[in-house]
Every structure is written in C-alpha cells, then in structure tokens.
Task: inverse folding
C-alpha cells in the first residue's frame, strides 16, 4: 500500500530528550496510542528551541505554525517505559523548517517510530510568514543533519 | 518546501461525526494544537467501525494497528467551536486500509485540515496481519470513495 | 473510607453542553479514564463563560485560576457514547467562584460523575486576586443554584 | 471559601517518579493545565504498582477503579520544566486504598500541588469489590505513611 519507511538509527539524530510515558498514553489495546507520538514531537522540538534561547513562548514575536506532520510506526511502546525523543533539522527555508523526530525505547538503537514536522514561522499577531530570527537560525544549524 | 495539499470539499467525504472542541484542545497560541487533529482521526474512524458493527473493542479478534498517519493544516480551529470530522476509505488491501479524514468548521465547505491514517489489521494476540472480516469489508465499502 | 457522595439529578444543573467522547478518552480498562472527566469540567465552565460574553481568552484582563477540583465517580462511561455536561454555580465570593459539574449519559437522569471546581479570579499579568467583573457576575448569577 | 490545604514537604512522600512536562501540558494561560496534574496522579500510582509487581495491566484479575479524586493547587508549573511526583498510601481498607500524591518542581521542598486518589479494587470482569491481593498489600505497606 505504501513504500514503508525504514527505522533510523539513534546516531542520525542530534538532540535527545528523555520522556517518561504516562498512564493515559496507553490506549485500550495496551500500547501507546498513535496520537501520543505527535505530542512527543511537539515536546522535543519546543524544548530544544526554548532551552536554546530561540523561542520564548510568552514573548517571541515570531512563532511556529505547524503545516504538515507525518509519522511511521514500527514497534509498540507502552507505559510505564521511558523513551528518548531524538531531533534533527532536515531543511531550513526562508520562513520554514523541516524537523525530523525519532522515538526510541531506552537503550534501543533503532527507532520505534519516526516522522517529520514542518513549521512555518509567522508573526504572532498577523499570522503572516516571517523570516527566521538569527538566534533561531543558529539553534537550527546546530542540529542540522545533511542527508 | 513541499507540494502543499489543497483543502478538500465536504462533499468528497462519506461519513460525518460532529465533535465538540474542549478547553485543553487549545494550546498556548490560542488555537487547536496540531496533535489534537489526530485524536479526531482516531475518533471518527473507530466511531464509524463500532457503530457499523465492524469493531467490538472488547471482543474483536482482529484489531487495527496504525502504521502511518499524516495531516496537512490549512486554517486554525479554536475552542469553543464545534467541528465535523469527515471520513472516507481511499483503498482497501488484503489486510490494510487507507482512511482519509477531513476536519471542517461547522458550516464550512472546505477542510481546515485533512490527512490519512493507514490501518494494518492484525490478530489481537499475535499481532500478525489478518484478513479483513466480511463485516469490516462491508463497512469499508459503504464509505469507499474512488479517486 | 469516605462518606460517598450521591449522584445528582439532571434537574439540579442550569446549563448543559453535549460532548462527544473520543477514542483516547478510554483507557486500557475500556472506559473513560478518571482524568478525562476534569477536561469536561474545564470545557463546560469555559464554554459557558465565553458564550455568555464573560470571558475572552485572548483579551480578558482577569482570568480564572483553578485552586481546587474534586470528582466522585458513580458509573462508567465509554467511547463512542456522547455525554451531557451540566453546570451550576454553588457560591460566588468577592474574587472566587465554586462551580459544580455533573456528567450524564445521554438520556440519563442521574449523574455518572460529579464534582466541583474552584476558580480564583486574578489579574492576568500579576496573578493577584481581582474582583469579578460585572459581566462575569451576571453570567454567574444566571446559573446560580441555591442549595 | 474553603479551608485551604497547606503544601506538604517532599519528605512526607515515600516514592518518587520524575516526569518530563510536555508542550500540550501548558494551556492557553502558559502554565500546566489543572487536568494534567491528575494524569500525573494516575501515572505515579500505576508506575509504582507495576514496578512493584502488584499490578499487571493485561493479566491482573483485580483492577483499581477510581471512585474519588481531589487536588489543591499552590504554585504554577510550566513546560519545559521537569517535575517529581511523590506518592504515599494514607489508608488501606479491605478493598480500597487512599493514595496521596504531591507534585514538586525539581529541587523544591514544598509541593506545587497535592491531592488524593481513592481506588476501589474490583474483579476485572464483574466489577464487584475484591480483596486486595497479598502482593498488592505488601506494595502498599512499603509506602504507607501514618499521619
């Protein structure tokens, strides 16, 4: 039905955040629900930007709107295990960025799931596309992974 | 950065479920967070399957595992508005199905967001691919939309 | 272990909002998770305040901080059923309000769960207690239920 | 309006789980939403029971139904900070348990929020109250804090 993606290695990501799963992450089938993975995408992207000084949720004039997301699922994860969210930047445009995220069981080398997340940066009030700020561009360059 | 999808018309979907947004759907930017849209994908797909008699969460021998999801976002939605989730089946394989979902503001003709969701049907215990049951296949045919 | 609360009748509430359950509301035990009920509390309280013109999420100078919440659970609810959230105001202080919420299966007279929610109204910037505005006080009076 | 609870010290809890906040935990006011705290209650209680060998989500004959929860909020928490969830057992009945949970900013001695959670243990199928198993009773005794 689709050319299935292959799981990435941990070494292909540039920044990692450990995340504790929660009771509510498991759905009725006893594994982490497909939607929860996207909440981890949001979490690692914004954690990186905030900790890098590139985003201030309250005050930044420019904020990232999500225009496209995608995820491929390879192996189940389940509460109460902890996971590592890996992040890299795949491409940087004038006002948009493609982030790629891999989710790994603790100690695992291959991703349990992976996907991407395209941010278009816009003025917080007008919601019109805005150029990437210098601090943001710097933060992105530090985790840029050329394919 | 990517060939952007164009929003679908409401008439291209075959089944609809009205959903009330919730306070927690809005994130700090005051609009529905990108992750929430996927929880509506899950909701309309499973609501349709359960109400059609094709899925019994507790007892079905065969359950759907999600192997790939994707969403494109066109217009913001925000609590407290209600939305309509539209559903159609785009293709039916031997043990997999591609669902397509459009999310519409009440009264709007064009989708605010749309995406797909690929289920592989597996045996609940072994998690090995399993043939679609006759009731499931019937339910899928009723909302099959040839491109 | 505790003097258990008794379920309220639907007629003891003053405002109602129908809410569609979602796939993710069910936890691994196949019923709506206890946490989700509180997301419905937030939803009906804020929906009422916004629709009454008493709260503008973006612009109100005064916002409600939650200082205490409580819920008693009587009967299970489960996706895909719809529910009705009932709301009343139990007491109005100078800068605080006690809301009471009952959650009903569609068509049921007795609450499946009920609880309360105490808002202290504060200045959005300083987070210091602030007097209730006249429009807020009016909106609260309209659903005030004397015990 | 209510005799406000006072924040507990960290030393009054017996088991701790570090939890990474997530982007979606913050609501439109830029702090962790009141509902999310309850998802941490669920998480630390069940993590403790599973890691202690007292609960097997898939197979345990006896499962805990939540009959009452309550939370008092003292100080705001916000993504991306990490928190520690502290747990103790306050009372053990024949088929019910009162858990108490304190949520702490990393390094803080006083709880940012605290509450309780009453589980009634029931047979998974019949949903009738069931005696606490010996492994469960042992696990509870190890974190029992006499007031």
Result:
């Amino acid at each position: 039905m689709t050319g299935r993606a292959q799981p990435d290695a941990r070494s292909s990501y540039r920044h990692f955040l450990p995340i504790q799963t929660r009771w509510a992450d498991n759905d009725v089938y006893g594994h982490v629900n497909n939607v929860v993975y996207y909440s981890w995408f949001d979490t690692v992207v914004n954690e990186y930007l905030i900790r890098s000084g590139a985003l201030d949720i309250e005050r930044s004039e420019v904020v990232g709107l999500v225009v496209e997301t995608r995820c491929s699922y390879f192996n189940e994860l389940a509460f109460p295990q902890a996971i590592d969210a890996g992040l890299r930047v795949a491409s940087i445009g004038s006002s948009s960025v493609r982030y790629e995220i891999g989710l790994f069981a603790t100690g695992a080398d291959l991703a349990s799931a992976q996907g991407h997340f395209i941010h278009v940066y816009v003025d917080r009030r007008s919601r019109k596309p805005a150029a990437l700020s210098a601090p943001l561009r710097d933060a992105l360059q530090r985790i840029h992974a050329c394919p």
In short: The helical segments of chain A are 34-51, 134-142. The longest strand of chain A covers residues 62-73. The CA atoms of residues 12 and 60 of chain A lie 30 Å apart. Chain A has a mean pLDDT of 94.
